[in-house]
Design brief:
Helix content: 10-25%
Mean pLDDT: 92
Low-confidence stretches: 1-18
Shape: globular
Structural class: mainly beta
Order of helices and strands: HEEEEEEEEEEEEEEEEEHEEH
Number of helices: 3
Number of domains: 1
Strand content: over 45%
């Protein structure tokens, strides 16, 4: 499903990276102030912003990332940086799916860097939809420091399965990197160059939705709780394992909403033991 991260760059990718469209950058800093976490720093450029933070759980800062254009085309580039100071805690999600539209050649890019220093972050964006004919590069880097706690996921919908359309043609480079104090815990890379990359029996198996959930601080009890949420579903394949204290959930499915529902159930099952909070889904998911 995923492949080791490579430092090689294809010559055509370097050419595609030349900026030709919208560039947007959002930098957010969270800090503990008294009894709750606040959005202490915010810097934005271009069409990328956030809604006002709110506190349905008291101390925990809930925040929604917004990209008003609603999608990316070839040449667009989005950058998101989060910094969480010690003692802070936040839940970040999005009001809807991110869309990567058909490109005539240039690449659309989304880069996310999450720095968590002795703090807690739940990173729960809705899915990325990669339209047929897109050329997309998506990377997420999670930097854990000290006793940082993290539960997060990434959901990729390759094509438009509800319309019977695959990511063919289409190109995608998907990267996920997790590290603690500079030591790599997980480096993933999935490259899709043509239709053959969508069908391998040891890869995507022809399923258009692929997802990964990561949680830190896991032990065997958390692994058991995560596995207890699973119910038989021939259209959604789930694998759950633990490497040291890292819980890793892999999913393949035929529909993004069903995959997201399965990951949500796992998140709800492990949130209390890992973060000391009962499950409380973001309000925006119900709209």
């Amino acid at each position: 499903m995923t492949h080791p991260l490579s430092i090689d760059t294809h010559p055509s990718e370097a050419a595609d990276a030349a900026p030709m469209g919208w560039e947007a950058r959002l930098s957010l800093g969270f800090a503990r102030r008294g009894a709750r976490t606040v959005l202490a720093k915010r810097s934005a450029r271009g069409p990328l912003t956030v809604q006002r933070p709110f506190y349905p759980e008291g101390d925990l800062c809930h925040l929604y990332l917004l990209h008003p254009p609603g999608g990316l085309v070839g040449g667009d580039r989005l950058e998101v940086e989060l910094d969480l100071d010690p003692g802070s805690s936040a839940m970040i999600t999005t009001p809807g799916a991110a869309k990567f539209y058909r490109s005539l050649g240039p690449r659309a890019e989304q880069h996310q860097r999450l720095r968590i220093r002795d703090a807690g972050l739940e990173w729960l964006p809705q899915e990325n939809i990669l339209f047929p004919g897109c050329n997309a590069h998506l990377s997420t880097r999670v930097e854990l420091h000290g006793d940082a706690r993290f539960i997060g996921w990434e959901i990729q919908c390759l094509g438009l399965p509800s319309n019977g359309e695959r990511l063919d043609p289409g190109r995608a480079s998907l990267q996920l990197r997790i590290e603690r104090d500079g030591r790599p815990l997980l480096w993933d890379r999935l490259n899709i160059e043509d239709a053959n990359d969508l069908d391998g029996p040891s890869g995507l198996r022809g399923m258009p939705v692929t997802a990964t959930l990561i949680a830190t601080g896991a032990d065997n009890d958390v692994l058991r709780l995560a596995r207890e949420t699973l119910v038989p579903d021939p259209d959604t394949l789930i694998g759950i394992t633990r490497i040291e204290d890292l819980l890793i959930v892999r999913a393949l499915g035929l529909a993004s909403d069903r995959v997201r529902n399965r990951l949500t159930a796992i998140w709800a099952g492990i949130r209390q033991p890992l973060l000391g909070r009962p499950a409380q889904a973001p309000r925006i998911w119900a709209t």
